[in-house]
Write a structure and sequence with these properties.
The protein has 8 helices and 10 strands. About 30% of the residues lie in helices and about 25% in strands. The strands form 2 sheets. Strands 6-7-8-3-9-10 form a 6-stranded mixed beta sheet, sandwiched between helices. Helix 4 packs antiparallel against helix 5. The chain is an alpha/beta fold. The longest helix is centred in the last third of the chain and has 15 residues, at about 170-185.
Length: about 240
Amino acid sequence: MEKTILAFEHVTGVRPRIMRPVRKFVLQDISLELKAGYIYGLIGENGAGKTTLMQYILKNNILYKGHIYIEGTDIRKDHTRILGKIGYVSEDRLFFENCTARQNAQILGAFYENFREDLFCDIMAAMKLSTQKVYKAMSRGERLKFQLAFVMAYAPSLYLLDEVTAGMDPVFRMDFFHILQQVIVDERACVLMTSHILTEIETKTDYVGVMAHGLLTSFGESPDIQSVLKQQKEGIQ
């Protein structure tokens, strides 16, 4: 039986009660299941809710109705421990700018029970990136490689990759998806990634979700994403 890594059950965001009329973006009745051993893609126009969906998992101060489970545990019951099961890679993730890759790994790796510094160094070497390079001196691609090595070093069961392949050089992009295949090959983890490169999502992921205005309008195998997006724009669901 395939293991469920992530499950959303009718998750709808709760708008905060505040004095001034501010519109706050929320998810609307999201239900989905991600199984171990697969790469899932999430697409939609800017502001559709892709990054917001990930933030509902990562942050413990977002109010919502419904339930989000990681490996069967409601994330609201023990959010700190649950974060140890999640590997988040994003251009927006913060690290110590004036520290080297290895120093960052040593400092932040202490917060993850299963973090292995030796494994981190091996993965960095395989990516041809020095552990002695200072984070602020890294290019965008190098920072994402470092982040991927860091999260792989504590073996999370859920990888959340937010627009990581944008601007990635073609050679490493091929290596990158080879690495993701290695991550899921033992069927202990799954990957959820967002991307604006539709051909990449069509060819490199197993299942695809389409989002619009906080709604998950389509989820499943999707060999023709362009057709799904066209229907979405025409109001056909």
